[in-house]
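[User] Could I get a sequence and structure tokens?

[Assistant]
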Amino acid sequence: MKFVIDHDLHCHTHLSLCSGDPSMTPQAIAEHAEREGYRTVCITDHYWDESLPDIDPWYQQQNTPHVTEDYPFQLHIGESETTPNILLGCETEFLEDGRVGISPEKYDLFSFIIIPPNHLHLKEITCPSAERTVEGLSEVFTDRLDRISKLSLPWHKVGIAHLNWLYEGELSRQVLDHMDSDRLTEIFRRFARNGAGIELNSNCFLKEFQWPEKKESHLKLLKLARDAGCKFYCGSDAHTVADLNAPEYNLRRCLEPVVTMLELREEDKITLPK
């Protein structure tokens, strides 16, 4: 059976400081999910564990009391076969010094933990020493993936976010093309053994990012992950209600062609613990 897009495991509420939309609440996300017929939605606000020192002040504000402010979610949607399951997750960072922004003591707070290996635009947080060239960013991105894959994490509920974009404009495609496939295959085999999920992010597949004209560049890492045996999940990365409702960001519209090109089956989908 073909991979069914019936979930959104990467979306943000107003509690993510980059949202700027007070109407982006768990209720709004749940209502949108019900209209779309999603079975599961995971709210993944930006998060840094307050027990871990020395982090940028922007992240420091997004601590445990902050991201759990609306949890448990008091949602006014009816109980029916179409009612989506709303989970609490988080999106945290991997720093240049090898730290990740969540301690083992906080793992049980979240149903899903996503880690972006490619927030290279957050230079002072993630990779202050990175050389901003194709070769430099290629090495940094590959090295970050490698080091993340070797961490001790609750891998059964960890996702690797928006794998095929670097927020570096045209340079992004060149970096993806330059990355070494043999080394990446090794890394993705490790992710597959760990049980991590690889994200299909609708924001990565927009015309402004030369999709689908440069589809081989965009699909390169995803194909390597598929061939290595990785599991996949979908994420809108929505930060506002406008994002949720914009046709160009719609998960099915954006990701159905990607699922088809990757020839993903339902058995290629991650299963989160209940």
Notes: DSSP finds ten helices and seven strands in the chain. Residues 34 and 83 are 6 Å apart (CA to CA). The mean pLDDT is 92.
